[in-house]
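Exercise: predict the fold of this chain.
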Amino acid sequence: MPDPTPTTQEYAVRTSPRMAWTSVLAALSLFAVTTVGQVVELVLKSTNPDDVDVTQGLAYLRPLLLTAFVLLAVAVPATVAAIVRLGRIEGRAATRLPWTLFAVQVVLWLIYVVARGALGPVIDG
């Protein structure tokens, strides 16, 4: 009589390169936006091209906000479009991991933004 317990191979999920790249995009999209924003802030405040008092919290606010909004306006729709396209090509089951990663990324990013806003005055002194 055959053993009724499933083998590891039966539990394996088929992944395609398209699914892998979409999952990576979903996992890194908001992290990349935050990282690029921090790098832009570092460059602006370290080079200080407009000779602004960079000890103030609002130094270079306009370019930093512009950078953040442009990056978000590109990253979020690109991620959503990639996940939707993956679903159309490979089926809804293939989009579970990317949607989950993207949702977790959004929640963690929102926690980061709220915490940074609340702790900003404490950190700045």
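Check your answer against the key: Residues 15-124 form one domain.
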